[in-house]
Input
Amino acid sequence: MKKSAAKLLTILFALSLVVVLGTARSADATAILALDDGFDLVLIADNTVAGDYFVNFFFDYTTDDDGNPAEGFLSFDGIVGDFEVDISAALTKPETQGGQLVLTATIIGGDPEFGSILDIWFTDTDFFGILEPASLTNEITGRTAGEVLTVGTYDPDNNEFGDNWWLDDLTHVSLGSFSGAFSNVATVQIETTSEPYSLTEQVNVFHDSGGTTTFTKTLSVPEPFTVTMLLLAGGYIGLLGMRRKKIR
Output
């Protein structure tokens, strides 16, 4: 990819996140997908049909049906601008365990002359408080004909789409940019809290001459039960080892 195109992608990615995240509203415990090509913004809420919900953005958007009836399982298959977008699975609680979002998508097309950008957000609120020391893990794997950037955000204020990560007010993990086949993971420590929190996945796809991008992305925080059980299991195994040594 040309350096100028890559630089433009990075700038537009940051600006687009500022626009959307800066309009975040308080939580209502409904997972939402947002798809934006810079001209058309499409929102899909969990277990909701088009027109049955409202998000307080200061710019126009349209709503579409959630393609999967299961709670915590969103999907979308349609056109957004120059792209054919297939979100085959956007998973959250109760489909996932603990604080976890999983996003699987195939993006096809784009303007072959000028290139096209698609921003994808997936957000959910009211994850259980983090009572043990833990980390926010952002992981992605896939293949692209263009370029991919991604950010995972943890918001202790429990807002949809988070808020102000670009000012370092929130804990976030960035990965990319990627081209060709890619796979990467990054983590950052987060503080304990007894309050519910939100998670937001953001993926930016740039196709400079059409093509296809596929990826699976996971953003996760270990649930308190899982962390506690791992610590107890580790201690138990250690005790067994000490006992075996004594027996010998």
About this structure: Residues 3-223 form one domain. The chain has one domain: 3-223. The chain has a mean pLDDT of 80.
